Amino acid sequence: MTKGYIFDYGGTLDTAGRHWGKVLWHAYSRHNIPVTEEQFREAYVHAERTLGSHPIIQPEYTFHKTLDTKLRIEMEYLMAEGYWNVSEDEYVKSHKTILEDLYEEVKRETSHSREVLTRINENHPMVLVSNFYGNISVVLKEFGLDNLFLNIIESAVVGIRKPDPRIFTLGVEALKLNPADTTVVGDSFYKDITPAKKAGCKTIWFKGEGWTDEKYDETIPDKIITDLSQIL
């Protein structure tokens, strides 16, 4: 019986189970940025590695500012590599259009997540465990999710990143529960489901559009959902 929940954030509460790389790629496609998916993937990986290795995202950054920064790094890479030949005015316009498109999408998804989490929180304590940049508290407040969690375990703060199972153990300890009484909800099989199982927790896989077409053993998670409300 589940007595408490651990939730992932990115890809779980903000994009309905879809990998952020895919969410971004679809936005580029919607707005006719003339690059291939392979070229975009290069830019996406470059941006993630840049943000992961340099303290660019500051603790006070909102999600809007974080997304703004990530898009700039991606787009500047595409231009520098010669994949996207565009004028400064066109670049600025495209950046702003995609930024606002994605931000509105995330506002809709987090609003739905807030409704579901509020209902779960009536009977179950919840903790957030996330690989993030050190500003997750600001982001949660931005989307009205800040008062729902007993504690926040953020990789940039605790010095442990998924898929290390120890980060989920910290979440269990924050709940003051046994691992077997704790259910972890996440969109990444590799970073959420597998390590949470190793930590002794039950798991719910929020299955959405992944970064790759890799197949996983769907007998491993205790439950598979395609909408957060299916937890209720």
From TrEMBL:
It comes from Xylanibacter rarus. Coiled coil: none annotated. The keyword Hydrolase applies. GO terms for molecular function: hydrolase activity. It comes from the Bacteria. The keyword Metal-binding does not apply. Pfam families: Hydrolase. This is Haloacid dehalogenase. Keywords: Hydrolase.
